Amino acid sequence: MRVGMWTIASLAIAVFFAVAAPAAESLAQTEVSNPSARELIVATKESPPFAIKDADGAWRGISIDLWRRIADQLSLRYRLTEQPTAQALIDGAADGSFDVAISALTVTAAREKRLDFTEPYYSTGLGVAVRRNESRLKSITGLLLSFDFFQAVLALLGIAITVGFVVWMLERRQTDHFKGGAKGLGTGIWWSALAMVHANTSENAPGTLIGRVVAVCWMIASIITIAIFTAGLTSTLTGRELKGLVQSTTDLRSVRVGALVGSSTVDYLDRERISHRSFASMQEALKVLQGGAVDAVVYDKPLLTWQVRRDFSDSLRVLDIALDSQNYAIALPYGSPLRTKINRELLDQIESDWWRDTLFHYLGESSEH
Questions:
Q1: pLDDT tens for each residue of the chain, 369 residues long
Q2: Of 34, 73, 80, 306, which one is least surrounded by beta carbons within 10 A?
């Protein structure tokens, strides 16, 4: 009887495991293939105005509000976890520690190799912050030391030397002060330079008819040439005073640049071979810019604009230029089955009036991105 009881118990246990094990395995497979069936781990980091952590620990911002909207529509359960850096978000999503990573994450080729991104929900570029009221002397100095100015001066000198050579060739056998090799050529170039700047050209002037015809043509042409050069110089100087020392990537090479360490901005500056100084935080970089130790700070334009408007509006400004195209998107583990569902809802949301109102609320803009 005792043996029979043990036999029945053993059979019952075997049947239990035979039924329970496949069921547990099936449940585990369901959770892997269908993450929406469990609580998702959503990682983020502070990147105002896209991810803002209030004093009470509550999260809001453009990216956070968008994710909440998507999760509500898809009935997704999730919990937010804060990370210190963007790299931590990328690494965690890449190794599957996080189901979703959202903040102000830019889509790059290197990141695309490690994980999946949704469709972009915001397009922007790199912004440049500079000090307000740059001195006129600094603007003039920057212009005079620029490569463009150097090219223009070389072009004028080249034209003057060419005209002087032509005059010397025409006059060297007829007019005494143009006779000789180096001395006569030097006289021709000197006279050409005087004519270009509209100085007294009666001394050492050409004596032959054809030489004087060339001289008259050069005097007229030099008036136009100098006028164009002066107008270009004035326009460039005015533009620098209105916009600052930096208007393009080329200008960054001639000023002291600051950037946030570990950001995609550093990748851009390295790719463009622009030397820069790295800072641990945007607040630190902008304080150094305010003090004059750097001339410009480069970072994602909406984030940079937010920081400057909030804390440095009296002393700094963000230029109305964008140096590099960037797209923000939600990061997911490679091959995540959530991607298709999120993409559909994300596209619906960013085409809605709610999205335009959200951008206006945080950025003061209503344009579509």
A1: 444 555 554 555 554 445 444 544 443 444 444 555 689 999 999 999 999 999 999 999 999 999 999 999 999 999 999 999 889 999 999 999 999 999 999 998 889 999 999 999 999 889 999 988 655 556 566 666 666 677 777 887 888 788 878 877 877 777 776 777 787 788 778 777 777 776 665 666 777 777 777 777 877 777 787 777 777 766 665 555 445 566 667 788 888 999 998 888 898 899 999 999 999 999 999 999 999 899 899 999 999 999 999 899 899 989 888 888 889 999 999 999 999 999 999 999 999 999 999 999 988 765 444
A2: 34
Long-range contacts of 65-69 (CB under 8 A, 24+ apart): 65/358, 66/102, 66/121, 66/346, 66/349, 66/350, 66/355, 66/358, 67/42, 67/100, 67/102, 67/330, 69/345, 69/349, 69/354
Spell out where the chain has E strands: 40-44, 52-53, 59-60, 78-82, 100-101, 116-117, 122-131, 257-260, 277-279, 296-300, 316-318, 325-328, 331-332
Domain limits, CATH 3.40.190.10, in the chain: 34-121+329-363, 247-325
